Amino acid sequence: MLTINPSKRITAAEALKHPWICQRSTVASMMHRQETVECLKKFNARRKLKVRLLAILHVSIYIEQSTPHPLHFLFSIICSPQEPQTTVIHNPVDGNKVLQQKTPFSRSRKQEIIKVTEQLIESINNGDFEAYAKICDPGLTSFEPEALGNLVEGHDFHRFYFENALSKGNKPVHTILLNPHVHLIGENAACIAYIRLTQYMDSSGMPRTMQSEETRVWHRRDGKWQNIHFHRSGSPSIPSQ
């Protein structure tokens, strides 16, 4: 009855004489039920194959990140178009879950930014101005509590604190970077935001902790990362005595 061509379509009288109508209790239920079961079996088998291929591809991404896996072609036939691999990142600060596409290059580059930031903080804790100047751009700009809301440019402002308050003979200082979050800006620029906890001993010998929120902008020149700008709020970087 659903045939488009009227000359090939059965008439109403012929339809009433069809076994699917006149013998519905025996013919219709068995014929279509079996076809439905077969279709469900095929669909279920296809679904299981897709799940297994996804599992294999997930492992192969970590084992052979630089070489295309031969199962990619088969997977593209079954699940076309192929979706990019994503990773769920949980932010312990705000509790939100965000989907981010990650590649081996981005992961290693973000680790570079975190490491060089830790080296910069270590040079401050050790009062090592020479190491600090190598990591920071000569035209470094900053907003920080010590500058009282003014934009500071260059190293001279920070040199004063290194020479008078951050000498190497001071009491030990320990810093923790909490929840560092890195934004890659092309191949040669990045921005990192984090919370900085500084532990120190005050003049009475009691342990103290300060907290500040920092954002640093990094630029890669001649294969080396340099800090070109930072913004710090909260406590000053020099422990109060």
TrEMBL record:
Gene Ontology MF terms: calcium/calmodulin-dependent protein kinase activity; calmodulin binding
Highest taxon of the lineage: Eukaryota
Signal peptide span: none
Boundaries of every Calcium/calmodulin-dependent protein kinase II association-domain domain copy: 109-236
Protein name listed in UniProt: Calcium/calmodulin-dependent protein kinase (CaM kinase) II delta 2
Lineage: Eukaryota, Metazoa, Chordata, Craniata, Vertebrata
